[in-house]
Write a structure and sequence with these properties.
Blueprint (H helix, E strand, L loop, with lengths): L8 E5 L6 H8 L3 E5 L4 H8 L4 E4 L7 H6 L5 E3 L10 H6 L3 E3 L6 H16 L2 H10 L2 H4 L12 E5 L3 H14 L2 E5 L5 H7 L2 E2 L3 H7 L2 E4 L13 H6 L4 E5 L8 H9 L3 E6 L19 E3 L8 H19 L23 H14 L1
This protein binds nicotinamide-adenine-dinucleotide (NAD).
């Protein structure tokens, strides 16, 4: 960044998950500003002369925020999900959005297994009972279960879903079913997933349901009361994908009626859950604060990816993972050098 562009200002809305990203950006010659506040007037002021914005969920990049960044060339997500960015508004303004694909494969599949095992072994309530001295009288009343031999239904067989399927099949002896109308069939075969063309069929057979599809118009609200009722009695539900895929009111009702034995959630809607939300007091639920993908290792990889892609964009190069590539070629594109290249291309036409 340093020679061709005079210390471009890069705003980080909240610190990166791994500090290596901050030092890499500084090494590239960026003027770095970390905004660790949700106050919109603060972020808007910070953006007024910025070339790049990196944003961490749940902060939301709306059209209003984009308008404050009059010189913004690129907005980078913190991971794969782009639901906190108004992509259409960015495209209209010629701002490229980049994300970071595949980094959830290992950490989120491990987290899903952790949650499945913790539910089956009642790890969290057992831990609490040992600490408060009630454990030893309750031991025989616990109903711990084994993962071996269970049928696990996975919705969304992408990077994470396929890795999870492979681990569950190879290491735990599970039967793994998958539902994903857009999945790469070769990936599914390699992962040992038995793909089903209809969601209701997967639900009917799954002792454990794991949700890891991307968030789209189709998957938003995909699992509600009807879908939960289709699961066998005593089933477990794990959501490590996106909160909006699962209707939390319906989940609570299915838990309270004892149709479901438990649920484990890393993602929510809304996020964070408001204080006093009934899920927070439900003993059948295990919660983690949307951290499945933020291991030290994955955060390191995502920081490198963000710095590389921001650097590419600020030099007018197409980055490796553009979300809205048309923003790069449209009339209003903010791609550096585009106007100069455009002028060069137009000159002969004008002569003719
Ligand atoms: N909890 C976390 O910390 C965390 C971390 C990383 C990723 N994620 C989320 O996990 C999800 C999956 O991530 P990934 O890296 O595997 O992404 P991916 O793009 O590799 O996989 C997503 C899969 O969802 C599938 N899909 C799309 N529409 C579907 C539908 N209607 N029904 C079923 N499947 C459908 C796609 O075909 C794709 O195979 C994303 O929502 C991502 O945001 C969460």
């Amino acid at each position: 960044m340093n020679r061709q562009i005079d210390r471009p200002k890069v705003v980080l809305w909240r610190p990166m998950y791994h500090p290596v990203g901050h030092s890499l950006l500084a090494d590239k010659g960026a003027e770095l500003l970390v905004v660790d506040s949700g106050d919109l007037s603060v972020i808007k002021e910070a953006l007024c002369d910025a070339k790049a914005l990196w944003v961490r969920t749940p902060e939301r990049v709306t059209a209003e925020i984009l308008d404050a960044g009059r010189n913004l060339v690129v907005v980078s997500t913190s991971g794969l999900g782009t639901d906190n960015i108004d992509i259409a508004a960015a495209t209209e303004r010629g701002i490229l959005v980049v994300n970071h694909r595949g980094f959830g494969r290992v950490p989120v599949s491990e987290h899903a297994i952790l949650m499945i095992l913790a539910l089956g072994k009642q790890l969290v309530s057992g831990d609490q009972a040992v600490r408060n001295g009630t454990a030893w009288n309750r031991r025989s009343g616990l109903h711990l279960t084994e993962l071996a031999g269970k049928t696990v239904g996975i919705v969304g067989i992408g990077f994470i879903g396929s890795e999870l399927a492979r681990k569950l099949g190879c290491a735990f002896g599970c039967r793994v079913l998958g539902f994903d109308p857009y999945a790469d069939q070769r990936l599914c075969r390699l992962a040992g997933v038995e793909m089903l063309p209809v969601l209701s069929e997967l639900l009917r057979q799954s002792d454990i349901l794991v949700l890891v599809p991307e968030l789209t118009a189709e998957t938003r609200g995909m699992i509600g009361a009807t879908e939960l009722a289709a699961l066998p009695k005593g089933a477990l539900v794990v959501n490590v994908g996106r909160g909006q895929v699962l209707d939390l009111e319906a989940l609570l009702r299915a838990l309270d009626s004892d149709h479901l034995a438990g649920a484990a959630l890393d993602v929510f809607y809304p996020e964070p859950l408001p204080q006093g939300h009934p899920l927070l007091a439900n003993p059948k639920v295990i919660l983690s604060p949307h951290v499945a993908g933020t291991t030290i290792e994955a955060s390191f990889g995502m920081a490198h990816s963000a710095v590389q892609q921001i650097d590419d964009c600020l030099h007018g190069r197409m980055p490796s993972s553009p979300v809205n590539p048309t923003a790069w070629d449209c009339v209003h594109s903010r791609r550096p050098d585009v106007k100069r290249l455009d002028a060069k291309m137009r000159t002969p036409a004008l002569v003719v």
